[in-house]
UniProtKB/TrEMBL annotation:
Gene3D superfamilies: AhpD-like. This is Carboxymuconolactone decarboxylase family protein. InterPro entries: AhpD-like (IPR029032), AhpD_core (IPR004675), CMD-like (IPR003779). It comes from the Bacteria. NCBIfam families: ahpD_dom. Residues 10-92 form the Carboxymuconolactone decarboxylase-like domain. PANTHER family: 4-CARBOXYMUCONOLACTONE DECARBOXYLASE FAMILY PROTEIN (AFU_ORTHOLOGUE AFUA_6G11590) (PTHR34846), CYTOPLASMIC PROTEIN (PTHR34846:SF10). It comes from Streptomyces plumbiresistens. Pfam families: CMD (PF02627).
Length: 148
């Protein structure tokens, strides 16, 4: 049996609206792309990685930052600042849910760097990209086809 490549237009539009609203509310396009890239790495979504790496380059992210999200903890603060590191930690905790919950320490660290509204949008963005990753991976959509 072959997999469908179709995505219901209304579903796709709703998912796109969620992503756009979360990014807009976060107010930092480069950070939003960093979060999306890390979640997509964790979810093994080649399509989303390909697309969001191109978008991140358009926002002026350094190649070093684009090369090292998977090793952000070891990369040091000269690559990712405290705010980016808090966002990456929250991204991993929400995406993986290893203990079935986001640890309080991870949430509290993010809350030190984001106000309540930004934090809500950050969590919304993480949820949105996890949805996109699952939709793309489930259908095995290959990278390519995205032009910035």
């Amino acid at each position: 049996m072959s997999r469908t490549t179709l995505l219901d237009r209304e579903v796709g539009q709703a998912m796109s609206a969620l992503s756009a609203a979360a990014k807009k509310g976060l107010g930092d396009p480069a950070l939003a792309e960093l979060v999306v890239i890390r979640a997509s790495q964790l979810n093994h979504c080649a399509f989303c990685l390909d697309m969001h790496l191109a978008i991140a380059r358009g926002h002026g992210m350094s190649e070093k930052q684009l090369d090292l999200p998977a090793a952000w903890e070891e990369a040091g603060e000269d690559v990712f600042d405290e705010r980016e590191r808090a966002a990456l930690a929250l991204t991993e905790a929400v995406t993986v849910l290893t203990d079935e919950f986001v640890p309080d320490a991870v949430h509290d660290l993010a809350a030190k760097h984001f106000d309540a509204t930004q934090l809500a949008h950050l969590v919304g963005l993480i949820a949105a990209i996890n949805n996109w990753n699952r939709v793309m991976v489930a259908r095995r959509i290959p990278p390519g086809g995205y032009t910035p």
